[in-house]
Amino acid sequence: MLFLDELPEFNRRTLEVLRQPLEDGSVTISRAKTTTKFPADFMLVAALNPCPCGYRGDPRRECQCTVPQVEKYMGKISGPLLDRIDIHLEVPAVPFRELAASRAGTSSGQMREAVLAARIRQAERFAGMPTRANARMNSRQIREFCRLEPAASELLRAAVADMGLSARAHDKVLRVARTIADLDASDGIGCAHISEAINYRLLDRGLWL
Predict the structure, then answer these.
(1) Within 13 Å and on the Cβ side, how many CA atoms surround 200?
(2) What angle is formed at CA 168 by the lines to CA 196 and CA 57, rounded to 5 degrees?
(3) Tens digit of pLDDT for each residue in 86-100?
(4) How far is the C-alpha of 10 from the C-alpha of 19, rounded, in Å?
């Protein structure tokens, strides 16, 4: 796992270098007389503020950033790099009443059981194939294993048109939706699964503006 905090503060050229290993799981280094490929299969987790000052959207503090400043800040992350990141989520501040609440949420044990069950479904799906997880499905496997119900297909079509999703982002939505359906113990991919996967593409929807 590679964790990058304050993602837009990294040099843009450095971030662009991540595109190849995120796509291929390897790094290729070329010199004058030779080319060498190294394994680089990792999970990227990145965090960033919503704006340079960090207070945009905060109900308790006033953001001092202008729209051009926010655009410049977010513009350091290119579209092709965002395309290669499966999930974009906003994590708002947790209100005190939730921090102090006694009601328990989903426990780590329950989450582990759900993940293991989804992993078993994936192992059965890809039995005899080099692919081991939904995230590594190629285009042929996506067409085979991510068949949508008619209403879900229409929902995805509308999202691609409205959000201007690239072909790569379209496939990311399908892979994530397939995993959501696995966690739901569902063989098919329905509207709820596609809708949730689309909502995980926050930065594609331009909601940071």
Answers:
(1) 20
(2) 50
(3) 999 988 877 778 777
(4) 14
Report d(CA 91, CA 15) in Å as an integer: 22
Integer-rounded Cα Rg, in Å, for the chain is 19
Distance CA 125, CA 127 (A): 6
Highest mean pLDDT pick, 25-34, 80-89, 190-199? 190-199
Q: How far apart are CA 3 and CA 44, in angstroms?
A: 6
Q: Does an H or E element contain 162, and which?
A: helix 150-163
Where do the structural domains in the chain lie, given as residue ranges?
Answer: 2-25+39-85, 108-205
pTM of the model: 0.85
> Tokens for 32?
């004058």
192: CB partners within 8 A, 6+ apart: 184
